[in-house]
Inverse folding.
């Protein structure tokens, strides 16, 4: 029996979110402006952000370039953003106070963050000064 994998994406035109996409298997593509109603009608966009596969405590699906509050221990008192780590070859949380701190989302198949540990706060792509500070570009 084969497992059909679903991948979700956020669609943007520059720094404005215009919709979402779902890819199921290798052939099925669906689009939505609100992640509620899906259809086969494409949405015009020029940038795509991949889902990191986690939800926050408000049940919001999280994507690369999202800024979140997160906790390493008991309190959600740190801020970070989801970025692709070219050294780890996976998405990580990059701490905004200590950008050299890359926290993987899972270790040995164990997920390190639960929804209660994360809360969406902003989009990194709408904060160009912070992007410069972190040395990242979404081109």
């Amino acid at each position: 029996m084969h497992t059909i994998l679903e991948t979700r994406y956020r669609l943007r035109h520059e720094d404005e979110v215009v919709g979402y996409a779902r890819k199921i298997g290798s052939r099925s593509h669906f689009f939505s402006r609100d992640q509620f109603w899906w259809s086969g009608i494409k949405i015009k966009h020029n940038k795509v952000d991949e889902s990191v596969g986690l939800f926050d405590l408000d049940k919001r699906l999280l994507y690369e370039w999202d800024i979140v509050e997160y906790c390493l221990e008991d309190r959600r008192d740190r801020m970070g953003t989801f970025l692709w780590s070219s050294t780890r070859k996976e998405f990580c949380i990059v701490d905004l106070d200590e950008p050299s701190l890359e926290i993987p989302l899972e270790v040995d198949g164990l997920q390190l963050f639960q929804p209660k540990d994360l809360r969406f706060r902003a989009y990194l792509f709408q904060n160009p000064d912070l992007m410069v500070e972190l040395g990242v570009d979404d081109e």
Summary: The chain is about 5% helix and 45% strand. The longest helix spans residues 128-134.
